[in-house]
Amino acid sequence: MADAIYLEFDFKVEPLQPGSDVLMAELGAIGFESFMETDTGFLAYVAKEEYQESAFKGIGLLQGGFCSVSWVQREVPQQNWNKEWESNFEPIEVAGQCSVRAPFHNPRPDLDFDLIIEPKMSFGTGHHATTHLMIKQILGLNLQGKTVLDMGCGTGVLGILAEKKGASLVHAIDIDDWCFENSQENVSRNACTKTEVILGGAEKLGEQTYDLIIANINRNVLLNDITKYAQVLDKKGVLLLSGFYSEDIPMISEECAKHGLTLDHNFERNNWIGAKYVF
Fold this sequence. Notes:
This protein is an alpha/beta fold. It folds into two domains: about 5-85, Alpha-Beta Plaits (2-Layer Sandwich), CATH 3.30.70; about 135-279, Vaccinia Virus protein VP39 (Rossmann fold, 3-Layer(aba) Sandwich). It has eight helices and 14 strands. The protein has helices at about 20-30, 55, 80-85, 130-140, 155-165, 175-190, 220-230, 250-255; strands spanning about 5-15, 35, 40-45, 70-75, 90-95, 100, 115, 145-150, 170-175, 195-200, 210-215, 235-245, 260-270, 270-279. Helix 7 (about 220-230) runs parallel beside helix 8 (about 250-255). The model has no long low-confidence stretch (mean pLDDT about 90). GO terms for molecular function: protein methyltransferase activity.
């Protein structure tokens, strides 16, 4: 894995929002693994062997529409990612309670939760609206002694926060090898002992039930897997969903309703939604 070659796309997007978020979602659906915002757009990374040129060219937003998009493409060795990331990554603060920072940033003892995340090629530093929204939702929950499932865990940041909030068991699952390894590193980095990282998808769900299920994935995956989430969610549990837009709420809610789940409330950020569903 250390010798893998990645393709870096430097996108310039005008206007910046919501164009950047829409394009990130489209790229994520065709295998792009990580994104880093810039002043004029964002950097996007995909393993060269996983890059699908036909799928990339099929993204409608690149052909025109409500925003203008241009890009420059280059190859970059995977081991150069940390240097690139360290030069651009700034710590963030959510709701005055939680910081998400890199190991080289100063600690934040003034906040309730100080999370140390080194994302490498994984998604989930809190900078993207969906991760920020999920952190905000989790901060509003009492997780003392609760069991938690973090689907599509990326860097593991949401599962790590859940353990820091008192969860007695966290299963963090991701289908991507790199996210699996990165989450393990970040779990260790944050001294979490109740979080188990699992490689795979919803097929890994079995007899274990959960008080809280977190799923920050794209809309189509959510629609496909909500049935499985409902099967392993405790009847007094909470389902937190993100990775979709405000206009997608009706179809997400319709699918949840098939399993007795109703929308409790949602937060919105740059047209992205973080929603809470309950039985």
